[in-house]
Amino acid sequence: MNQVLLIDDDVELVGMFREYLEQEGFRVSCAHDGEAGAREALSGRSAIAVLDVMMPHMNGLETLRRIRAHSQLPVLMLTGRGDDTDRILGLELGADDYVTKPCTPRELTARIRAILRRTNAPRGDGEGITISVGKLSMQPAQRRASWDGAALELTSTEFNLLEVLARNAGRPVSKNDLSEQGLGRPMARFDRNIDVHLSSLRHKLGTLADGRSCLQTVYRLGYQLIRD
C-alpha cells in the first residue's frame, strides 16, 4: 500500500509534491482543508498522511486530533521554520515525524519512505515471535502491544521506538540509535522528537511494582526499558 494523502491548503505546493511523488511510484490523493483531510485519512485508503499545520478554518493540529481519535494512520507534519511549539504539540498529539517548510520534494519523499519502511518492514522468520519484558508484550509482525494483558494504543513511531527498547531491555539505547532504528533517520541537532515520543510512551505504559516508570532516562546514554 503506497497511497499518500497530502493535506494542505497551498494548491500549488501540493501539486508540486504530488507530481514528484507520482514520479517516485506513489499514488497520491489530496485535500485542501482539514475537514476533508480528516475524512479522507479515516477512509482507510491511505498508507500515510502529510499534514500542514497552518490551514484556515480547521488547522493541522485539530485535524490531527480528529484523525488520532479514530486511527493510528502514520502522519507526517509540515511545520514552519521556528514553530517549535506547534512541532512539539503535533508530536504530543501523535504525529510520527515532521518536516520543516520550506522543504524539497526529495526531502519530503525520503521522510515518507523512512516512516513507511519502518511501518511495513517485513518480519520474515520472526512472524510468530513475541517480545516480553515484565508486563509488556509485543508481537512485531502483527504490530500489537499490550501491558498486563490490556492493548496499548500506539502510533507507528511509538511502536517502533518501544520495539527497539524492548529488544534491548535492561541496557540503555542512545537517542541517535533510537532515531535511526525507530524513525529511519539520524537525529538532527536540537531534535526533540525522541524525547517527546518517549514522554508519550511513559504515559501509556504501566509502572513497575515500586511505582517507577518502566522507561527510564539514563544520563548521557539515552533511554532504557527496565526489566522487572
From TrEMBL:
Domain spans labelled OmpR/PhoB-type: 128-227
Subcellular location: Cytoplasm
Entry keyword annotation includes Transcription: yes
InterPro entries for this protein: CheY-like_superfamily, CpxR-like_REC, OmpR/PhoB-type_DNA-bd, Sig_transdc_resp-reg_C-effctor, Sig_transdc_resp-reg_receiver, WalR-like, WH-like_DNA-bd_sf
Ranges where the Response regulatory domain occurs: 3-116
CDD domains noted in UniProt: REC_OmpR_CpxR, trans_reg_C
Sites of 4-aspartylphosphate modification: D52
Main location, first listed in the record: cytoplasm
DNA-binding region(s) in UniProt: 128-227
Pfam families given in the database record: Response_reg, Trans_reg_C
Record keywords, A-Z: Cytoplasm, DNA-binding, Phosphoprotein, Transcription, Transcription regulation, Two-component regulatory system
Protein name, as recorded: Response regulator
